[in-house]
Specification:
Blueprint: E1 3-4, H1 23-29, H2 31-53, H3 69-95, E2 100-101, H4 106-128, H5 135-157, H6 165-191, H7 206-209, H8 222-227, H9 232-237, H10 245-248, H11 257-264, H12 273-299, H13 301-315, H14 331-335, H15 338-383, H16 387-391, H17 397-417, H18 419-439, H19 442-487, H20 489-495, H21 498-525, E3 543-550, E4 556-564, E5 570-575, H22 581-589, E6 593-602, E7 608-609, E8 619-622, H23 633-638, H24 645-654, H25 658-663, H26 681-694, E9 699-703, H27 711-728, E10 732-736, E11 748-753, E12 756-761, H28 763-769, H29 771-793, H30 801-832, H31 838-847, H32 850-884, H33 888-936, H34 940-945, H35 948-990, H36 998-1039, H37 1041-1047, H38 1050-1095, H39 1105-1120, H40 1123-1142
Parallel strand pairs: 1-2, 5-10, 5-11, 8-9, 9-10
Antiparallel strand pairs: 3-4, 3-6, 6-7, 11-12
């Protein structure tokens, strides 16, 4: 058949009535805009940017979205879809004519090419920020709008209406071209790049100007957002080089913890977490819900399209689709084509998964923002905690760790599941409507069952909430007891009490597992956020009148306190053990609650001014119990102050630290840890004193700095550090001590007894007014002087110091070599994480018991066999009914068989769910028991060298993953795997020819997962390694709360917490984006496979309609599933925490 633009009929070229009356000429006129755009844009695209691409690399700091960016992309995608429909309509209409009429579909093909070129052209203009080149697009949309309007008018004049598909397509294209033209006009109005004298200059967003920001999801175009195309570079590069923190960069400003904390920290009369969430994150939650609604509505397109395809298989089996002999195509005829339905099903599923992934991303991003805001709020409340809350056990490190590692994550996942609350009613209503149209009144029975089960579901939900609450309470109690054991581990080992205290922890663990069993039971049949509160912080003052102070119990610990501390002098606080000396310092620091009295700073004796000390003076404080940062010796001494070499040398000499620093493997750059790794008690104490001396503050408070020092070091510290270094600086010093021989150096003395001030004044005043007390002190001072003389006689032994130091240095070198070997082993372990931890997986499965493992596998296989049997039974029933039109006896037979299979399937579903949960809880019990015993029975050096937060993380976050995350992931993995295998089996039985398509699908999945798994493991590793410093920082802050507040370094520690939070959030955000990247690609590959199956459905022989429908159904079910690949990756990520616990 010959080809021609207007056909072989001479009448097609008739223009006697006017050129616009000729349909062929009108179609040719519609080619003009497309040819114009291609002629203008191709030289710019391939010559301009093509030549620059090899010389100049366009960075993302030049990206700038023009006004109407997202609307333009949506309209362009819609226009491309309409062009596809126009091409299909033109081809079908052309097939009904005697000769080929290219004008029916060639303009549509050119329009598709031009529209695609327009969006590529726009993207290049946008990323390069050349708005003047948009004028070509503006002219194109104007010309396309005019030509399509002419065509629509001519169709209307010819008597065509909405029943004609070509008329509808043309009308839609007029609207779309008009909207795109309006978008271009809006860009001209806002940017003023043409027709205006002063064009507006706009800079890219601040995030894009910072090349350190690598998370580009909020800034890329709509297509890249939907496909996560911008992640390709990171995913591919991970195969060549491991992903590190530098590769993922920084968080965008809008996602940082401080930004979201400011949004969520809204002052309310009645604090409410829900109101704060609504105010801060209401818009993204609404956007996520909208995406979820669209995805749910598109989800019903699948069953409708499949229903139409199956009906076409029944009516036109083995025959071509039959249309009327009319040259035009109606909308109804177009939708009755099986190929059209297959394409619509494909597009509907693609859009559904796109909207679903968009909903997931928005909720995850919002959840991460919420987590950052909550962590900032919790940290602020920790900084305001009263010391009594921690010292009396009202709030422990275990509780804080549980709050940070578990409960904030649960609130984050609550947002992820939140759209289900209002999406489920829509799904139920739409499902009932569709079933009613298909089944009639029988569908109302199912709706009635749903309504009747609603009270039961509500009852189960309330029980689930109660079980979850009790689980959290028991988990908090367990962590509290574990924290007590870890903090007193040396005493427990000394008395061999490990097993006694382990038994107490295990009893609480059994209660926790009982709650989890209840939770699992109700889950098979179908968060409490702790806010830390403390009394408002009171600032340190200089004089107290009739003061009464308490630790929050209401009973006065210090009573009738009347003291004054002279400025620029040495004040000593002395007294017996437990008389309240340390409490007096903490009261001065504002750590105790003032019950009564006046506490104020007196600027002069005649003019008292009630100012807080923090506004007038800076303070340095050394606690009686040493507190060190998990940092180097130098960082612990400087404590955020600028490094001054001369001052640093003077301080270390005054504290006799230089010999100890020389013994350390890396000198003062040695990491010493939060618990003083490799340091003795005296060394830790002197570092804390050196920190107080190094700070350039007005006031220094030292709480018994000689308690862990021998007499020689105490005397050196007193002479060189206090009397010389501090006194020379004229700093106000308050010293709590038992060394009464130093009282002669005191300018002012405060004597304490039983929580009250016994005497106050100079030593001469006390000698005059209280002779008995002075004589008692004199006796004790003589005794201490005798001890000092003994030490002096032993100074000759200091010659042995160098030999002992050398021996200790050799020991340290040996320990360092052992640590390096451990580091190498740790590095090897981290690299092994790039492989699937099959051994750990097997250890987890066998921890639940071989019987439960066998029962789980057997019940799973039996359940999926019954499910496949149900579908096969329905297919056989349908085939027999359509061929033989069976009577009542056969109908009863099939109904009875179907009922039996359904009952067995329901029972087996319950059994398998309970078996998986039971096995998971048994494994969790055994693994926690082994973990607790290994930790408690470990050597003392392990507790000295391992941060407490790291150990608690094993009992909180990792244990929570084993308890509540691995069992459902394991169930999902086995379900999706068996569904995949059963689907392949049924498809092979019904339509064997489609097994050929498994080869390219398998190859595609192999390469996608090959790159994804490596990147996912690296990102999971980054998520784990960045979470541990955050948890350690929280525990470190809680332990050194008094010191941090005394130095008034809350802002610095808060900034550090925000940095650690953002670092952990960016790692998790990239991990979530990588999961979405995988989902988009595997689901789209599955849908391509499904579309091919839909289009080849005619290969099933006549009489096998049930089998053909069963094949299509299994294709649909498999493509709706996540496939085993995502579950394997998720399970492997969860097993990382299990692997850490096992080792």
């Amino acid at each position: 058949m010959s080809l021609s633009f207007c056909g072989n009929n001479i009448s097609s070229y008739n223009i006697y009535d006017g050129v616009l009356q000729n349909p062929c000429f009108v179609d040719a006129l519609n080619l003009v805009p497309h040819v114009f755009l291609l002629f203008i844009t191709f030289p710019i695209l391939f010559i301009g940017w093509g030549s620059q691409s090899s010389k100049v690399q366009i960075h993302h700091n030049t990206w700038l979205h023009f006004p109407g960016h997202n609307l333009r992309w949506i309209l362009t995608f819609a226009l491309l879809f309409v062009h596809v429909c126009e091409i299909a309509e033109g081809i079908v209409s052309d097939s009904r004519r005697e000769s080929r009429h290219l004008h029916l579909f060639m303009p549509a093909v050119m329009g598709f090419v031009a529209t695609t070129t327009s969006i590529v052209y726009y993207h290049n203009i946008e990323t390069s920020n050349f708005p003047k080149l948009l004028l070509a697009l503006f002219l194109y949309w104007v010309m396309a709008f005019i030509t399509k309007t002419i065509k629509l008018v001519k169709y209307w004049q010819s008597g065509w209406g909405v029943s004609d598909l070509r008329f509808c397509i043309t009308g839609i294209m007029v609207i779309l071209n008009g909207l795109l033209m309006a978008v271009e006009i809006n860009v001209i109005r806002v940017r003023r790049y043409v027709f205006f004298m002063n064009p507006q200059k706009v800079k890219p967003p601040e995030d894009l100007q910072d090349l350190g920001v690598r998370f580009l999801q909020p800034f890329v175009n709509l297509l890249s957002k939907a496909t996560y195309w911008w992640m390709n570079t990171l995913i591919i590069s991970a195969h060549k080089k491991p992903i590190d923190l530098k590769a993922i960069g920084k968080l965008p400003i809008a996602m940082r913890a401080v930004t979201n904390y400011v949004l969520a920290d809204y002052p309310n009369r009645t604090p409410s977490i829900w109101l704060a969430m609504y105010r801060a994150f209401g818009r993204p939650i609404l956007l996520s819900s909208t995406f979820r609604y669209l995805a749910d509505l598109l989800g019903f397109a699948g069953p409708l399209c499949i229903s139409g395809i199956v009906q076409l298989l029944y009516h036109y089996w083995g025959e071509a689709d039959i249309f009327t002999t009319s040259e035009t195509l109606s909308s109804k005829e177009f939708l009755e084509n099986s190929y059209v339905l297959a394409v619509l099903l494909f597009l509907a599923l693609i859009l559904q998964r796109t909207f679903l992934q968009a909903s997931y991303y928005v909720t995850i991003e919002t959840g991460i923002n919420l987590r950052g805001a909550l962590l900032a709020m919790i940290y602020n409340k920790i900084l305001r905690l009263s010391t009594s809350n921690l010292s009396m056990g009202e709030m422990t490190l275990g509780q804080i760790n549980n709050l940070v590692a578990i409960e904030t994550n649960q609130l984050m996942w609550f947002l992820f599941l939140c759209p289900n609350l209002w999406a489920m009613p829509v799904q139920i209503i739409m499902g009932v409507i569709l079933l009613y149209n298909l089944l009639g009144s029988s569908a109302l029975v199912g709706a009635a069952v749903i309504v009747l089960l609603a009270p039961i579901q509500y009852f189960i939900a309330t029980k689930l909430a109660e079980a979850q609450k009790s689980t959290l309470d028991y988990s908090t109690e367990r962590l509290k007891k574990t924290n007590e054991i870890l903090k007193g581990i040396k005493l427990l080992k000394l008395y061999a009490w490990e097993h006694i205290f382990c038994k107490s922890v295990e009893e609480t663990r059994m209660k926790e597992l009982s709650s989890l069993k209840t939770f699992a039971l109700y889950t098979s049949l179908s968060s409490k956020l702790l806010l830390l509160e403390g009394p408002p912080k009171k600032y340190m003052v200089y004089s107290v009148t009739n003061g009464y102070f308490s630790w929050g119990s209401g009973l006065a610990t210090l009573s009738n306190i009347d003291i004054r501390i002279p400025t620029g002098q040495l004040t000593m606080v002395v007294g017996q053990v437990g008389c309240g000396k340390s409490s007096l310092l903490l009261a001065i620091l504002g750590e105790m609650q003032t019950l009564e009295g006046k506490v104020h700073w007196s600027n002069s004796k005649s003019q008292p001014r009630f100012f807080s000390l923090s506004r007038l003076y800076s303070v340095a404080y050394a606690a009686q119990k040493p507190w060190l940062l998990n940092a180097t010796v130098e960082e612990n001494i400087t404590f955020g102050s600028p490094f001054n070499k001369q001052r640093y040398k003077a301080v270390t000499d005054a504290c006799s630290l230089q010999p100890d620093i020389d013994l350390l493997p890396f000198g003062d750059q040695t990491e010493i840890g939060e618990r003083g790794i490799n340091l003795s008690g005296g060394q830790r104490q002197r570092i804390c004193v050196a920190r107080a001396l190094y700070q350039n503050t007005n006031i220094v408070l030292l709480d018994d700095p000689f308690s862990a020092l021998d007499i020689h070091l105490s005397d050196h510290l007193m002479q060189e550090g206090i009397l010389k270094f501090l006194q020379d600086d004229k700093r106000t010093l308050v010293l709590v001590t038992h060394k009464l021989q130093y009282l002669t150096h005191a300018d002012w003395i405060i004597a304490m007894k039983d929580g009250t001030v016994l005497r106050e004044g100079t030593l001469k005043d006390i000698q005059t007014k209280d002779v008995e007390l002075y004589e008692h002190w004199k006796t004790l001072m003589n005794r201490q002087d005798q001890e000092l003389e003994k030490v002096i006689r032993k100074t000759l032994r200091r010659a042995m110091y160098s030999r002992e130091a050398k021996a200790q240095l050799e020991d340290e070198d040996e320990e360092e070599e052992e640590e390096e070997d451990e580091d190498d082993n740790m590095s090897t372990v981290m690299r092994l994480r790039t492989k699937m931890p099959w051994r750990t997986c097997w250890r987890y499965l066998t921890s639940g018991g071989f019987f439960l493992l066998f029962l789980m596998i057997f019940s799973k296989l039996l359940k999926h066999s019954v499910i496949v049997a149900i579908d096969y039974w329905l297919a056989t029933w349908t085939s027999e009914y359509s061929i033989n039109n069976t009577g009542k006896a056969d109908q009863t037979y099939y109904v009875a068989g179907f009922s039996i299979l359904c009952g067995a399937g329901i029972f087996l579903c319950l059994v398998t769910s309970l078996t998986v949960e039971w096995m998971g809880l048994t494994a969790a019990k055994n693994l926690h028991h082994n973990l607790l015993n290994k930790i408690i029975l470990g050597p003392i050096r392990f507790f000295d060298t391992t941060p407490l937060g790291l150990i608690l993380n094993r009992f909180s976050a990792d244990t929570n993953i084993i308890d509540q995350h691995i069992p459902p992931t394991l169930e999902s993995l086995t379900r999706s795997t068996l569904l995949c295998l059963s689907a392949i089996g049924m498809i092979s039985y019904a339509t064997p020819v489609f097994l050929v398509a498994l080869v390219p699908l398998g190859v595609a999945f192999y390469f996608i997962q090959k790159y994804f798994r490596v990147a996912s493991k690296d990102l999971q590793e980054l998520d784990d390694t960045t979470q541990l410093p955050l948890l350690c920082h929280f525990s470190e802050t809680a332990e050194g709360l008094t010191t941090i507040r005394a130095f008034r370094h809350e802002t610095r520690f808060k900034q550090r917490m925000l940095e650690l939070t953002d670092t952990n959030n960016i790692a998790y955000l990239f991990l979530s984006a990588a999961n979405r990247w995988l989902e988009v690609r595997t689901v789209r590959s599955s849908h391509d496979f499904e579309m091919e199956a839909q289009q080849k459905g005619g290969l099933v022989q006549r009489g096998s309609q049930g089998k053909g429908a069963l094949s299509v159904l299994f294709f649909f079910c498999v493509c709706e599933e996540d496939w085993p690949r995502a579950n394997i990756c998720c399970q492997s990520s969860s097993l990382f925490s299990l692997e850490e616990d096992c080792h």
